[in-house]
Design goal:
With 256 residues, the chain is mainly β. It contains one helix and 19 strands. 2% of the residues lie in helices and 44% in strands.
Length: 256
């Protein structure tokens, strides 16, 4: 088996010439911050797919909370009010620069809001209601290694690894290791991803790896593998893998 690291650098894209501040009344450090890993509106994909996301938020607290996202700022320039017990649909807008992911801010409440983020292929919406994508609180992220288990490598499926950090001026590398399914000490391949994000308050730092097979150096590729992701700095991050059927476009998410 050949060894060595393949370095994959994610090139950050300048999204705005001027970065807007958070809506009045919000502070990035004092508010609750949530990662929406994938958001899209009529986004063309492989094999004729057209992807769109839908976000529903329920306020479980006994008092009104306010929710602030990038698209709300674009349309209202003020946080959206969620009375106690209310359930609201937040419409999704196309993301500038074509980058997936969005950070959502809420005022503090006694109970965390409930989220349902659903991704659907509109070209096949009669076949499936789509896939629920986890919404991750910043407090749930850590610098501990992340394991993504039982990732299929069989033909007919494609895999995309996505790595996120909350908005920050600091970037970092993560080491991605592909482990043998029966022996975690056998490393089939490795890659270094550079997670860069800049200082935009609504956009997470991000890196992506298309196709786990691309970093496997072994001549024998098992039908499934396990993935280990280790940050090179003590900074919080999160990651998941989407597995998409090339024929049906049905998506399965593999999360920590």
């Amino acid at each position: 088996m050949r060894s060595g690291l393949i370095t994959i650098i994610f090139l950050s894209v300048s999204i705005f010439s001027a970065v807007p501040a958070l809506s009045q009344g919000f502070d990035e450090e004092e508010s609750e911050v949530y990662l929406l890993p994938v958001v899209a509106k009529e986004l063309p994909g492989a094999h004729g797919s057209i992807w769109q996301s839908e976000l529903v938020v329920a306020n479980n607290a006994s008092h009104t909370i306010f929710v602030d996202t990038l698209e709300i700022c674009f349309t209202l320039c003020t946080p959206k009010e969620f009375p106690a017990g209310s359930i609201r649909l937040i419409p999704t807008m196309p993301q500038p620069g074509g980058l997936p992911g969005l950070l959502l801010y809420t005022t503090h409440g006694a109970d965390a809001p409930t989220f349902n983020l659903r991704m659907q292929d509109l070209s096949r919406q009669a076949q499936t209601w789509g896939t629920q994508i986890p919404v991750v609180a910043r407090s749930e992220m850590s610098s501990a290694p992340i394991f993504l288990l039982n990732v299929p490598l069989t033909s007919g499926f494609r895999q995309t690894l996505r790595v996120y950090m909350p908005s920050t001026n600091e970037g970092m590398n993560v080491v991605v290791s592909v482990l043998h399914p029966q022996n975690e000490t056998v490393v089939l391949g490795q890659a270094v991803l550079s997670v860069d994000g800049g200082s935009h308050p609504y956009k997470p730092a991000y890196a992506q790896l298309d196709g786990v097979q691309s970093i496997i150096s072994s001549s024998e590729i098992p039908s499934t593998v396990n993935i280990k992701i280790v940050p090179e700095r003590d900074l919080p991050f999160w990651a998941f893998i989407s597995v998409t059927n090339n024929e049906t476009q049905h998506v399965t998410t593999i999360v920590p």
